[in-house]
Amino acid sequence: MSAAIASTPDAAVRPEPGRPLIEVRDLVKHFGPVVALAGVSLTVRAGEVLCLLGDNGAGKSTLIKTLSGVHKPTSGDFLVEGRPVAFSTPRDALDAGIATVFQDLAMIPLMSITRNFFMGREPIRRVGPLSFMDMGFADRVAREEMKRIGIDIRDPRQAVGTLSGGERQCVAIARAVYFGAKVLILDEPTSALGVAQTSMVLKYVSQVRHRGLGVIFITHNVRHAYAVGNAFTVLNRGKTLGTYRKSEITIDALQNLMAGDKELQSLSDDLDGMV
Amino acid sequence: MADREAVLTAIRDERLKRQSTLRRLMAMPELGAIAGAILVFLFFGVTAGGTGMFAADGVLNWVTVAGQLTIIATGAALLMIGGEFDLSVGSMIGFAGMMIAIPTVYFGVPIELSVLFAFVGALAIGFLNGLIVVRTRLPSFIVTLASLYILRGMTIALSILFANRTIVSGVRNFADGTWVQALFAGKAFSGLFVWLAETGVIATLPNGDPAVKGIPAVVLWAAGLALIGHVVLSRTRLGNWIFASGGDANAARNVGVPVGRVKIGLFMTTAFCATVYATCQVMEFGSAAADRGLLKEFEAIIAAVIGGCLLTGGYGSVVGAVFGALIFGVVQMGILFTGAPNDWFLVFLGLMLLTAVLFNNVVRRRVTGER
Ligand SMILES: Nc1ncnc2c1ncn2[C@@H]1O[C@H](COP(=O)(O)OP(=O)(O)OP(=O)(O)O)[C@@H](O)[C@H]1O
Ligand SMILES: [Mg+2]
């Protein structure tokens, strides 16, 4: 299993903890008249989990899609390990070591688990001048990586469409962990998961962090965020409400910050603390 | 208690294993086409067994028809799996034929150069088809429907302009003895067939020649293209990209698949296949005609669909398309051999298509776990 990890690209690169991997300053993104991001700044450090919190439509997905090369920023600075970058495709981001689990997963139901797992990053076996996809290796790795995340798939060639929503999410996470050499971005990875898989994913996130990667973790669940996060950035209507280290903020304060104007707090009181 | 659970797990595992083998078999897109081919062979084996359909020259007949169709069906299948259609294949056959015949016969261009010109021209048109589809994100159905008319119209108009006719014959005078003719209309393994005739395995003609002189180049082209198509689709990175582009272009793009380039390449592939088809035909007949290839785009799509390609893309196989083409050839020729009115071929074809689409729909639900 460790052999499989060692064979991921750039596995040898182990940035020392705390070093900034991604820095974003005043990032702005417009979709025609829609202002999705109105100047966002954040820093992702090696060996740290940065949690991105905020209401629906706050711009979280847009932000991470910009970081992973899907969208081009309208303006603002974007640095990877201190160097300014301008990704024109998601491939560029992957090449730079940034792997993402998108909210919509980017899984193709008709294709097999293996083919999905390696989509865009197919392992190659050369035979003379020809190069083939190494299906044996791919099947093996897909099965092993799924086992690591706690799902025992019997047939890595079965179509992803036959998996449950949670299992699909696990394929997407396993894939990103396998290919994310420096930074792992997870957009609401636990939204469809049951208790066991959720704690598996959270454990996974902290494992990945200890390996020295930087993680961006998007969630609506403050408890999940507080469990794994080192720093918390709250977005609201395309702007940062602030970034807090874990030592600077309590879980309740974070909850209140997310809820904005204490509405949730009073609702919570009404419901006898059920929210 | 723990024991019981272990046993239960073992039982459950076994059930799942069986199911997944079955599922894997069901998930083979070509399954339906292979079953269909067997049925068709059985049917004509009984009804046309005594007509010479399965003698050497009879076999050559339907193998040639199937081979011709395989050439364009391979391109169509790959493109369909990549999520697009090309309705301009038939027009491209006519146009490419004229791109060979007119320069050769009317402008004194060496035939080798004319053939090269036709391939380059066709690839450029394929590129343009692809570029328009990828850039505008319009359905390829509409874009290539436009190409269908534009190309057919240009074929007729330009052949009248340059040659003042719509059938250009006399290509043979320029082609005889050249390597392009051997490459596109030669017969392979002729020694083998002479020997087979001498030993009495196959029949001889009255003049002593074997009834089948060799394997026609068009059949070898079909085999070669289908083999390459199959290997590329199932065993290479590009193949994975083709499935991904057709399955969900957005998801594919998000993980770094160059969807645009893949699709443009596939449109160029269908154009290439159409030109191979056209060149074989021109070399065989020694002429080009403006109406060549009429409706061939539909035959290619039908073969691909019978072979298990989904109309929605992302699923299918080249092997299936070959069997689709084989069914097509066997039925078309079989109906001739049995002497049944040829109109029944069309009826049969329609029914076959309908059955295939219904079957594919069931398979897709099975594979994706949809109910
Ligand atoms: N491609 C697009 N075109 C136009 N507007 C867009 C596009 N993508 C996002 N938006 C808009 O940008 C805003 C931010 O959307 P985004 O998906 O980033 O929110 P989010 O924080 O991820 O929300 P959620 O928690 O619901 O996932 C929304 O108002 C959305 O409508
Ligand atoms: Mg989102």
TrEMBL record, chain A:
Residues in ABC transporter domain copies: 22-262
SUPFAM superfamilies: P-loop containing nucleoside triphosphate hydrolases
Origin superkingdom: Bacteria
Listed InterPro entries: AAA+_ATPase (IPR003593), ABC_carbohydrate_import_ATPase (IPR050107), ABC_transporter-like_ATP-bd (IPR003439), ABC_transporter-like_CS (IPR017871), P-loop_NTPase (IPR027417)
UniProt KW keywords: ATP-binding, Nucleotide-binding, Sugar transport, Transport
Cell inner membrane among keywords: no
GO molecular function: ATP binding; ATP hydrolysis activity
Name of this protein: Simple sugar transport system ATP-binding protein
Protein source organism: Prosthecomicrobium pneumaticum
UniProtKB/TrEMBL annotation, chain B:
GO cellular component, one term: plasma membrane
Coiled coil: none
Molecular function GO labels: transmembrane transporter activity
TM region(s), chain numbering: 25-47, 59-82, 89-109, 115-134, 141-162, 182-203, 215-233, 262-280, 301-332, 344-363
Protein location: Cell membrane
Function description: Part of the binding-protein-dependent transport system for D-xylose. Probably responsible for the translocation of the substrate across the membrane.
Name used for this protein in its record: Xylose transport system permease protein XylH
Source organism per UniProt: Prosthecomicrobium pneumaticum
Lineage: Bacteria, Pseudomonadati, Pseudomonadota, Alphaproteobacteria, Hyphomicrobiales
